[in-house]
Amino acid sequence: MAINISKQLIANGKVVRGYIGLSLQSLTPELAEGFGLTSTKGALVADVIKDSPAYNAGFKKGDLIVDYEGKEVPDASSLRNSVGIASVGQTVTMTVMRDGKKLQIQVKIGSEQEQEKLLSSSAQERLGIVVQPVTPEQAKKYGIEAGQGVEVVKVNLKGPLGKAGLEPGDIILQINTQTIANQEELGAAAAALQPNKKAAFLVVDHRTGDAGYIQAVIP
Questions:
Q1: Is residue 185 included in any domain, yes or no?
Q2: Residue where one domain finishes, among candidates 58, 89, 110
Q3: Is 139 among the domain residues?
Q4: Angle value at C-alpha 162, between 160 and 167, nearest 5 degrees
Q5: What is the pLDDT of residues 30-55, one digit of tens each?
């Protein structure tokens, strides 16, 4: 990883992490038993972001990724690191367990810019809102730590959060137990929400400055 980072710094002056659009989790003994496995090795696909490289390659929820480029995948964290240090544009091969059978899937590594665009689109589509960063003035006004939360600038009144009473100017601090610091984190959290289930949003009311939770069923 250190060698890869140093090469990127020399070539680009910055580190560009790879992205494919998978929400991953490690296997617990209970999950492994449910899949009929005797080992907890591998990375379980919890969600696939629509129109992402992984989505276009054919990954599905419930896939268990056991091999990356010929090497065993011990857990979700190691796979995230492997994807993160891969070169943008590189095509990698993963072995997946699906319905008790092994299959190989090739996927082209995307860029952070693609990720940001897709996650922003995902948040807008699923939540029915458009957001922007919280300014230092807003953070001071509402007593929010710097770099915390996103301001809502547009709300679809027919969307899930519009129906729940969210308004432009409100600030989203948290979705369920996940804190939100920027648009990318909002998009990732939105993409990972279970469909047709309630989610809790910690929001600062722009009218009163008070923070409180609202609930919405996200499609």
A1: yes
A2: 110
A3: yes
A4: 145
A5: 888 877 788 899 999 987 887 889 99
